[in-house]
Amino acid sequence: MNLQPFHPVGTPGQPWGKAEKAQWLAMQRRQRSHAEEVVEPLRALAGDWDVVEYGSLDYADDGHYPLLALRSRGWDDSLPVALVTGGVHGYETSGVQGALLFARGHAAAYAGRINLLVVPCVSPWGYERIHRWNPDAIDPNRSFRQPSPARESAALMELVEPLRGRFVLHVDLHETTDSDESEFRPALAARDGKPFEPGHIPDGFYLVDDSARPQPEFQQAVIEAVAKVTHIAPADADGRIIGSPVLAPGVIAYPLVELGLCAGITGAPYVTTTEVYPDSPQATPAQCNAAQVAAICAALDHVLAVARP
């Protein structure tokens, strides 16, 4: 077992305690503004959406953050509900900006056909620090279970709970970045006192289906739409993407509920997690945002055409 140092915090082979977590937290720096880049453009949509503050996070000296969602204006209880989430991992920028772009320029096409609930930035502290975790060194996207150790996850589950049984679709917007391999996975190994085992970052877009309830035709419809915007990640030499078998071009699957992942919180029959690759030389930030929008629209179009309630 290789226990050579691979992260500046902690002792190799020993899980972090309070001191190590405090040392890690002291290293984090605010690099952008949630208020300016998320809250202001979100509140500017109030004429077309109902803006809902479903909670807040008070991280003392690290900031106070409102948790905001967009709810369809003219909500119709006779219609099914679709959830779009972004920024569960705050550093994954196109998830946040893609959700806002969809809400601003594309959601109107679905008015009167389906109720939309859009949560552009689940983890605002992580958004500002361009980090995967919250300030407690917890990954919100492994924390969607009761009781949740992550306040971000608990607040979103509370928002969703009254609508369970009515969701037909959930699209959770993510990115896979080079920093996953260079920074975040080494930090995870250090935090848990485990050896870091290098992996491979795929070049391109892919989706994560629910292995407990797969929807291959739905996933493929989304892939086909996104392929018109950006390239789809190929399988590696072993037929895998990030260690998981490729089930169809650009599609892998996880047990969403078992792993405490955001895409498992609604019980919707149609769910997918998008994974954009923003570090590709073939992709621009605008293209990454557009890929997220294409995925949302394709998912909605498929559900409305095939899965009418």
From TrEMBL:
<protein>
    <submittedName>
        <fullName>Peptidase M14 carboxypeptidase A</fullName>
    </submittedName>
</protein>
<dbReference type="InterPro" id="IPR021259">
    <property type="entry name" value="DUF2817"/>
</dbReference>
<comment type="similarity">
    <text>Belongs to the peptidase M14 family.</text>
</comment>
<dbReference type="GO" id="GO:0008270">
    <property type="term" value="F:zinc ion binding"/>
</dbReference>
<dbReference type="GO" id="GO:0006508">
    <property type="term" value="P:proteolysis"/>
</dbReference>
<feature type="domain" description="Peptidase M14">
    <location>
        <begin position="30"/>
        <end position="303"/>
    </location>
</feature>
<keyword id="KW-0645">Protease</keyword>
<feature type="active site" description="Proton donor/acceptor">
    <location>
        <position position="275"/>
    </location>
</feature>
<keyword id="KW-0121">Carboxypeptidase</keyword>
<dbReference type="InterPro" id="IPR000834">
    <property type="entry name" value="Peptidase_M14"/>
</dbReference>
<dbReference type="Pfam" id="PF10994">
    <property type="entry name" value="DUF2817"/>
</dbReference>
<keyword id="KW-0378">Hydrolase</keyword>
<dbReference type="GO" id="GO:0004181">
    <property type="term" value="F:metallocarboxypeptidase activity"/>
</dbReference>
